[in-house]
């Protein structure tokens, strides 16, 4: 696995070998021969969960809330639950180590800003807190698990969890040592260009990034209007923070620098993970800049950890139904279910290869404008890689804007003609009641 010319991890053939289909293709989460999410999850969770949803998979309970103790919430992207859970597993000696993505300082030989690492203490776990919109691969960490006995918890994107589950079926050492997989709700994976895009607009050249924080909480803004903080190699201690939403190309729906595999994925929430954690993008939580998590649990032991912590007021959580969890990620589900069905239809019509998916190919469920939205998103994603490379070659950010802007305008016209239904009196009433409920609950909690 190497970074290609566009900053995306790809599999390259080893020297003196031909690029043919390997015998272990069934381990790839996007192959035609691998088990799908339903087949993987059924033996793991069906007996304990008792509930199954078409988008969430099996689950025991679902909550929204935040960590009420310590600095977990302040140091996390959202409600702080992911770091809290990983630390709690260490505290309860349920695992010996945690594998998750951590920031790293780039050097001459290795320019990467993030990579997977091992944490064995709470402080080490907190160094990896927050969301990292950056490409990673985990072959080194799998070697660590094989060579260093112990019990491991892994924090992974849905496709990574699926790959680990498939590998654990074949590898008894991994199956024995990996005790818990924590899934991170995913919009899509970015190439290295996304960090460079943010840095360049903040006054830091793409090859001069020392450190980046993709999710800086801003007290004067709602949770969704977070900041990006950049440190340059020339002045590592000098932080530059800008509002992410004010930068060109940060609207997630545009799909800049997206892997093509992400447009062939139908798992938003992490259906094969023991527990899934994401942002509560719901109107009643938007005003709280500190952030709120949604949590979906499938493992009995992890469910008990959460319930006991709620009772002890270590977690400020409230149960929410599956529909509310799905609403919190509604854009992702539309793109990866309705949109995927149309992308599969287009692939079949063009007689191009695509993996077998749980979603069936179709087009008539969408109006012409919505089909245009999904077509333009595919164009934007593919063009962004090429245009960014050209902009860097020309040392001119304007080259990228000029190439992307016409497609953005076309996309916007289609989007405005077929907007998602996320407004109206009921939406505003729900937001008002939710905020009022949260404030009352907060006062009672402080008592």
Which strand-content bin applies to the residues? Answer: 15-25%
Query: In this structure, how is the largest beta sheet organized?
Result: 8 strands, mixed
Radius of gyration: 22 Å
User: Which class best fits the helix and strand makeup?
Assistant: alpha+beta
Q: In one word, what is the shape?
A: globular
Sequence stretches where pLDDT stays below 50 over 5 or more residues: 422-432, 438-447
Count the DSSP helices: 14
Average residue pLDDT: 92
Strand order of the largest sheet: 7-6-8-9-13-14-5-15
**Structural domains: how many:** 3
Please give the structural blueprint:
Layout (H helix, E strand, L loop, with lengths): L1 E2 L5 E2 L26 H13 L1 E3 L3 E3 L1 E7 L4 H4 L5 H11 L5 E7 L10 E6 L2 H5 L12 H9 L4 E5 L1 H13 L1 H6 E7 L8 H9 L7 E8 L10 E6 L2 E9 L31 E5 L13 E5 L2 H12 L3 E5 L2 H7 L1 H21 L17 H27 L2 H21 L7 H22 L1
How would you describe this protein?
It is built from 14 helices and 15 strands. 40% of the residues lie in helices and 18% in strands. The strands form four sheets. An eight-stranded mixed sheet has the order 7-6-8-9-13-14-5-15, with helices on both faces. Helix 12 (368-394) runs antiparallel to helix 13 (397-417). It folds into three domains: 33-188 and 266-331; 193-246, no CATH class; 333-417, no CATH class. It is globular and about 55 Å long. The longest helix has 27 residues, at 368-394. With 447 residues, it is an alpha+beta fold.
């Amino acid at each position: 696995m190497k970074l290609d010319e566009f900053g995306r991890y790809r599999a390259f053939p080893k020297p003196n070998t031909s690029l043919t289909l390997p015998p272990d293709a069934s381990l790839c989460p996007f192959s035609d021969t691998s088990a799908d999410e339903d087949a993987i999850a059924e033996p793991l969770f069906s007996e304990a969960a008792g509930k199954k949803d078409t988008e969430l998979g099996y689950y025991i309970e679902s909550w929204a809330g935040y960590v009420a103790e310590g600095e977990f919430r302040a140091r996390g992207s959202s409600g702080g639950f992911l770091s809290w859970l990983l630390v709690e597993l260490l505290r309860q000696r349920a695992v010996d180590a945690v594998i998750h993505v951590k920031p790293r300082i780039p050097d001459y030989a290795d320019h990467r800003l993030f990579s997977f690492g091992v944490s064995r203490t709470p402080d080490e776990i907190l160094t990896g807190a927050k969301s990292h919109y950056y490409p990673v691969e985990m072959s080194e960490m799998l070697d660590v698990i094989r060579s260093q006995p112990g019990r491991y918890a892994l924090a992974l994107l849905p496709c990574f969890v699926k790959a680990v589950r498939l590998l654990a079926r074949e590898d008894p050492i991994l199956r024995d040592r990996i005790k818990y997989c924590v899934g991170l709700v995913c919009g899509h994976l970015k190439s290295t260009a996304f960090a460079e895009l943010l840095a360049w607009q903040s006054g830091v050249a793409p090859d001069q990034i020392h450190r980046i924080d993709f999710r800086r909480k801003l007290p004067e803004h709602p949770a969704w209007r977070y900041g990006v903080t950049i440190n340059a190699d020339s002045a590592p201690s000098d932080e530059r923070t800008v509002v992410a939403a004010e930068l060109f190309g940060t609207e997630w729906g545009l799909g800049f620098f997206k892997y093509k595999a992400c447009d062939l994925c139908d798992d938003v929430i992490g259906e094969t993970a023991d527990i899934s954690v994401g942002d509560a993008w719901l109107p009643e939580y938007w005003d709280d800049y500190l952030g709120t998590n949604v949590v979906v649990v499938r493992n009995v032991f992890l469910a008990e950890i959460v319930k006991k912590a709620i009772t002890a007021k270590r977690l400020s959580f409230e149960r929410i139904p599956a529909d509310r969890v799905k609403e919190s990620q509604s854009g992702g589900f539309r793109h990866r279910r309705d949109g995927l069905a149309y992308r599969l239809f287009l692939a079949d019509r063009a007689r191009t290869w695509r993996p077998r998916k749980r979603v069936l190919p179709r087009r008539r469920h969408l109006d012409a404008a919505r089909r245009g939205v999904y077509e333009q998103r595919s164009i934007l994603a593919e063009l962004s890689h090429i245009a960014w490379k050209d902009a860097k070659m020309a040392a001119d950010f304007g080259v990228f804007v000029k190439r992307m802007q016409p497609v953005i305008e076309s996309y916007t016209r289609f989007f405005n003609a077929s907007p998602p239904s996320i407004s109206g009196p009921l939406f505003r009433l729900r937001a008002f009641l939710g905020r009022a409920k949260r404030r009352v609950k907060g006062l009672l909690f402080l008592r």
